[in-house]
Amino acid sequence: SNYQFQTYHMALGVPHSESVVIKNAIDPIEQHVKPKDKINLIYHTTPHRGLDILYAVYEQIAKNRDDVHLDVYSSFNVYGWPQRDVEFQPLFDKLKEHPNITYHGAVPNSEVREALKKAHIFAYPCTWLETSCISAIEAMSAGCAVVCPNLGALPETTANFSIMYPFDEDINVHANRFYHILNNTIDHFWQEGHQQKLK
């Protein structure tokens, strides 16, 4: 991507003409029908990428509506690095205690792919400088709306198909923006125009 070329050029002095980026890819997720009883949010990446913001925002959303559930597939165990999870244990405990959140930890990708078929929105208040985001690509392949900021290469990765908002380093500003756009996406998920965009 252009973002990656620029990063390598600026940080390492590698000329554009000598740069090659190996692109990410996935096996497309087969056609399926989304459940209609409620809106299922999903977060399926490591916890340091904005899970704390998602929990705080979802906690507020869940106070005002009972038609939304959150599934969290997140742990450094996916990289075989369980000691890195220690700092996130208090957050994991909060997720486990919330009645409308199911915390799954680290599971095989095949299980995440099945969960994406039941999910409606990839809720991703990203704070990590993504260069390419497999989680977003999988979510889009599964017909999920992707709600994320315009940080790093997320604009390129989601190719204007995400519901994107301006990133802000101030966590409170970020959380407030994410809250409003996520709530709006939940409200309008089943509208025809939105469904056509997801297709």
Report on this structure.
With 199 residues, the chain is α/β, with parallel strands linked by helices. The chain is 41% helix and 12% strand. It has a 6-stranded parallel β-sheet, sandwiched between helices. Helix 2 packs across helix 7 (171-188). It is globular and about 55 Å long. The two termini are 24 Å apart. The mean pLDDT is 93.
Blueprint (SSEs and pairs):
Blueprint: H1 2-12, E1 39-43, H2 51-64, E2 68-72, H3 89-97, E3 101-103, H4 109-118, E4 121-123, H5 134-141, E5 145-149, H6 154-158, E6 163-165, H7 171-188, H8 192-198
Parallel strand pairs: 1-2, 1-4, 2-3, 4-5, 5-6
Helix pairs in contact: 2-7
Please write the string of helix (H) and strand (E) elements. Answer: HEHEHEHEHEHEHH
Helix content: 40-55%
Number of helices: 8
Could you tell me the number of beta strands?
6
Average residue pLDDT: 93
Distance between the termini: 24 Å
